[in-house]
Amino acid sequence: MNARLELKMRILAIMLTGGLLGGLVFVISRGHTTAGDLRAGIVYGLLISSAIAVFELFIANGALREQLGRLPFTLSVLVRSAIYAAIIIPIQYYEIGAVLAGVPVDDDRASFWSATIYSGLFSIAMNLVLAITNLIGTRALSNFITGRYHSPVQENRFVLFVDIAGSTGLAERLGGVGIHRFLDRTFRLLTLQVADFRGEVLHYVGDEVIVTWPERSGAVDCRPLRCFLAMREALAGAAPQFAREFGAAPQIRGSLHFGTVTVGEIGDIKRAIVFNGDVMNIAARLEQSSRDIAGGFLASRAALLRFGAPPPVPLCDLGRLPIRGRADGIDVMGLAEPALATAAASASP
């Protein structure tokens, strides 16, 4: 299954489970505990949560992703809440859950309003959880909740640094607001590829995004390398649209390294999960060196040797690269000419 679709299915299952439990809590709290009442609560919960989940996962994060993504956080929540109300009110007003559950309908208007208000508040709470998840990332939220990195641990990780080339000159031409919109649009496009290749966005730092994979996940089918190539292909496809809107299309450089990192929570007022170690420093310095390489990409031999399959494109051995902080340097490889030709062909109209 497509990784992006798999993630949506997982979130759908969580939302349906939450809706089911929410429906049960409501009917039990009102003292309705017969089999028919419980069945009706479950049906109402599943009806409302499934409708909202389909909207969120396949419309708000599908056809309307760009439009809703440009709204401020509060306005986005308000728009979503209005849509939730348009879903909830007809279901409660026409007693659809009771009809489907095969129990007598309740003509008490007070019951209608209490059920509608409860459903609305419950749905808004789920919306806020989704919004927070989007802000800090699904894995980061899960790790905070489970306390996986409450005490620092060491993990073997692939680390991919991706930098937007020429952003300094673009910032001078577009101005502060313009370059922010340019980077936002670019990163939104790039992170779709991260999701497709099961990566995790670690940080956005200025015009750079850092992506990471645990060893077992990243080694499958050369995911980090394929992710970078897919990023370039996606940007090539979107180049005409960027050119029309900003007068320039984004180009990226990158570096890939592998090794042991120390991962743990840090800070107090604003707690975060951070990665430390020599791997991060070397990956950053490889990205800087990639600016002088024809293919704009450098991968350490240590990373490539960890892949469970041959690279998807030809690579060339660039020998040992001097790296500040490493007396013996590091063996690196770059994209060979056939790979560059393929990338150029995909970028042409």
TrEMBL record:
EC number(s) per entry: 4.6.1.1
Keywords in alphabetical order: Lyase, Membrane, Transmembrane, Transmembrane helix
Transmembrane segments: 12-29, 41-59, 71-93, 113-136
Enzyme kind, highest EC tier: lyase
A GO molecular-function annotation: adenylate cyclase activity
Gene3D superfamilies noted in UniProt: Nucleotide cyclase (3.30.70.1230)
The keyword Transmembrane helix is annotated on this UniProt entry: yes
GO annotation terms (biological process): cyclic nucleotide biosynthetic process; intracellular signal transduction
Domain Guanylate cyclase residues, every copy: 158-287
Pfam families, per the entry: Guanylate_cyc
Matches recorded under CDD domains: CHD
PANTHER family on file: ADENYLATE CYCLASE, TERMINAL-DIFFERENTIATION SPECIFIC (PTHR43081:SF1), ADENYLATE CYCLASE, TERMINAL-DIFFERENTIATION SPECIFIC-RELATED (PTHR43081)
Protein name: Adenylate cyclase
Species, as recorded: Rhodopseudomonas rhenobacensis
